Amino acid sequence: MTLKLRPRRMRLNDNIRAMVRETSLSVKDFVYPIFVVAGSNVKDEIPSMPNCYHLSVDNAVELAKQIDALGIPAVEVFGLPEYKDDIGSSAWNMDSPVQRAIAAIKKAVPNLIIIGDVCLCQYTNHGHCGKLCGQYVDNDSTLELLQKVAVSQAQAGADIVAPSDMMDGRIAAIRDALDDNHFINVSIMSYAVKYASAFYGPFRDAADSAPHFGDRKQYQMDPANSREALKEVELDLSEGADIIMVKPALTYLDIVRAVRESINRPVAVYNVSGEYAMVKAAAANGWIDEKRIVIESLTSMKRAGSDIIISYHAIDAARWLGNI
Ligand code: PBG
Description:
Bound molecules: ligand PBG
CATH superfamily: Aldolase class I
Shape: globular
CATH architecture: Alpha-Beta Barrel
Number of helices: 11
CATH class: Alpha Beta
């Protein structure tokens, strides 16, 4: 018997594999998240996220220049405010680190796309993503606050605002507020499908944003659900979202695929802090080959259907893809 069908022929060497490769990862797929704080010349490593830093605005600008030089098209800006209160008012203060960083980066590196994370949990003294009514996060009164955050970030120079709070109706509310303030060309990247995930643990340390009581299960999605994800996507698109995000990434690639097949708008995926921390910890122990694990993981996100990958690995991956 002679075998006629031999898939291995297409795997014989680097060049043939490159010719038949179905998915290619590019530096242009990436967004790098940064954490900004008050002060100057601050660069403090985040313990559970090795090689990620709390940066003052001056250092954030320097990093943004490096990110641009690597060819990464965008950064997403998160911040730690100087004060917190019950409604998170520092989230729309034009003197807060996020607004100042957005303005400074826009000035220094005008072509770099700046995405502002629109949420309140880093800014409220209770750590929830909205305004409280007793122990309940009140949806509709939170929308007005989110509108202020989005407009302040647009005023600072953000190209895209990315609401991550999971309140109902926020995309329509933010679109209205942006348009009323003449920011018709500021896009909305919706964290449309955001699960109530344990994989956000290191981020909450980094952003000091863990809820002080309860959890986020009344607004973030149940990890067991996928039909609900498509409902969230449909609502956000009907309200005016330009980009749809699924978050976290690796344990939700089935959702990325389902969303990709159900819509014809750009899909983003957020490779979150816990996913990053696990890779870094195993690599630090010498248990895995970090470079191969990272490229394989990011490729799987692209293969599942995402156009945009937000990842703390983006800088390393950009270097590896460019063989630097
Ligand atoms: C704010 C927000 C979170 C993340 C992004 N925006 C945390 C949360 O919802 O608790 C998580 C990012 C990460 O884990 O890398 N709501």
